[in-house]
UniProtKB/TrEMBL annotation:
Any one GO molecular function term: transmembrane transporter activity
The name this protein goes by in its record: Major facilitator superfamily (MFS) profile domain-containing protein
Subcellular localization(s) per the UniProt record: Membrane
Superkingdom in the source lineage: Eukaryota
Taxonomy of the source species: Eukaryota, Metazoa, Ecdysozoa, Arthropoda, Hexapoda
Membrane topology type: Multi-pass membrane protein
PROSITE patterns in UniProt: MFS (PS50850)
Domain Major facilitator superfamily (MFS) profile as annotated: residue spans: 410-635
Major location category of this protein: membrane
Keywords, in A-Z order: Membrane, Transmembrane, Transmembrane helix
Membrane-crossing residue ranges in chain numbering: 20-40, 52-71, 296-325, 337-357, 369-388, 409-429, 487-507, 513-535, 547-571, 577-601
CDD domains xref list: MFS_MFSD6
Amino acid sequence: MSALWPFVNVFAKQLGISSMETGLIFGAAPVVATIAKPLFGAIGDRFKKKKIIFLFFILLNLISCACMAFLEQKRPGRPVIFKCTYAGTSIRQCGSVNAHCNESIIDTFKTIKRNTSDLVSPPTALFNQAPAEIDGSRFEECYVECEIHSFAHGVKFCSSILGNNAPGVCGLWGCRDNFASEYDSHSEHQHGSYSDEEDYSDPSLYLQPTILQFSVQLKIWDAIFLPGLHGDVAKNCLILPVETVAFEGESGRAGLSCLNSSILPYCFIDCPNNPALNSHLERVVEHVDVYGSVNFWLYGTLIIFSFVAMAVVASTGDALCFQLLGDKPQYYGSQRLYGAIGWGLFALISGFLIDTVSGTKLLKDYTPAFYLMAGMLVLDLVVSYKWDVKEFDKPKSLRRNVSTLLTDLRIIVFIAACIIIGMCTGLQWNFLMWHVEILAEEGEENCDVHDTRVKTLQGLLSAVQCFVGELPFFYLSGWFIKKLGQIHCITMVLGVFGVRFILYSVIKNPWMLLPVEVLQGLTFGVFYSAMTSYANKVSPTGTSATVQGIFGAAFEGLGVAGGSLVGGLMFNAYGGAQAFLIFGCGAFVFAVLHCLIMFALNQSSSYRGVQLGIRETEGQEMHQITASNLEVDSE
C-alpha cells in the first residue's frame, strides 16, 4: 500500500478537491472503520473465519485503489480574480510563493524574448473590433473568461461600473441604475455591508454560471507582489494592473473603473505572448461546487472502501499473528517490523518513479504508484492464501466477556488515550505530505526552477519513518514495554507527538523534516506494539479479534477520523504550520493529563489491590490484572 497511500491525499488536489474536503473524507472513512473493525472481528471470532475475512478485505482494497486510477484529473488552469475599483482594475492571484522570489519572478515577465511578428491579437470573431496595437514592452495582451455564479453578484458588478464600458450581459439583467439601488438596499438589509469575499461560497447562490469574456491589456511593468490573506492564511499576491478592457461583442476598448470595489472571483486568464507569465499563473483548480462534483463522491467512496479494508486487514492480521505467537507475544514487534520495511522501501521507490515519469509537468503522473500497488497486493493475496493458521474455538459468551472488559476504568482511560494519539496520527498521515508540498513551493531557493523532487522527498520521508524510525523501534518495543509498561509508553508517545508537531510548525525547509521523522519510531512503532499487546493481554479467551478491533477502532476510527476532520478544517483556515503547532501543544496537555489520571487511579483505594479475572490471549495461562500490574509479563 505504501506505493500509493502516502500520496493519496495530495492526489486529491489533482482531482480538484481542497484540503478541507479531503479532511472531511478522511474524517468519515475512519468512522466507518470504527464499525467495521469490531464487527468483522466478532464475525471472525464467532464463526472462526478470520483468514477468509483477511483475504476478502485484501481483495477489496486492491479493487478500490485500482479504481482511483480512472478518476478524471483536473486540467491545469490559470485562475485569477478580476477586481474593479474607483482607481482602476487589476488581475490578481494569491499563492504560496516565497517573498524572496518576487522580483525574480516579475523580471521573467518583463524580459521575455519574443518575435513581435508572432504576437497574438484578440480574435475578431470573439471581439467585434480591430486588433489593438500592442506595445510589447509595456502592455501584455491577455484574454479573460469569468464565471458569474449568482444573479446578485452579477448585478453588483454591473451597477458599480462607471461610464459606458459595461459588458452587454448587463443589459440582459435590466437597467443598471434601478438594480443598483435595489441591490444596495437588499444587501444592506441582509448583510449590513458588502465585502470582497461575501457569500461567494453560499451554495444557495449557485446558478448555471454566466460566462463573461473579455480581453485586457496588462501594465506588465507595474506588476507587484503584495501580502494578502486567504481566510486567515497569509498569501503572497501577484497584482497585475489593467490598462484597458474590451468586452466580448463590444466595439470599444477603454479603461474600466467602478464606484464601489467589485470583484469577479472565478476567472481564468491566458496570455499567449508571455509563456513565463502563463507558467507562473498555472494552478490545479479546485471545484467551485466541490460537493456537486462526481470526483468528490467517487474519490470519497473509494477512500472509505480502501480505508475500511486496510483497517479490518490490520486488526484481523494482528489477531492471527498473536495466535501464531502463542505464549511469546513479546515477539510481535519483531514480526511487525517487516511491514515497516515494505512500507519504507516502496514509498521511496514509488516517489522516485513518480518524479521521474512526471518531469517538470504541473500534474504528477501517479501511474507507477498504481502499478506497484496492484502488483504487490496481488502477491499479498497469493502469500496470504498459503498462510496456514489455526482457529481457536469460539467463546461461550463473547458479549459478556467483552462487556466485562470494558467496565474497567483503567482500560477506558487507555482507550481514550489511544483516541488522542489517533487524532495526532490522523493529522500526520493525511496532511504532512500536503504541508511538505506547501513548504516546497514557499521555500524554493532557486526562483527560476520549480523543485521537481517533491515526490522523491515525500518518499524519503516515508523511508526514514520506516527504516530509521519504525524498524529499530518495533524491534525494541518489547524492551520499552518491559521497562516502562504500556501505560507509561502511552504517556511518552503523547509527549513525543508534541515535540514532533512543534518542530513541523517551525521548520521552513522541507528537507530538514527528514531527521524529525526518526520520532516515528516512538509515535507509531512503540505505540502500536503497546496498544496491540495490551489488547492481546486483556482479551478473554476466544475474543482476540474482537478486542483488537475495539482498540483499533478507537485509534483509527475515532482518533484518526477526528484528527483528519479537525486537522482539515484547521489546515484550510490557518495553514499547516499553525495546525501542527496547535496539535503539538494539545499533545503535551494530554500527556500531562494522562499521567495524572493514571497516577490518581493507582492511588485510589477503590483500585488498589482489585483484581479482574480476565484471561490473557488465546493459548496463554490465566492472568490476573491488578492496579499495580498492567504491564507486559517479563517473559
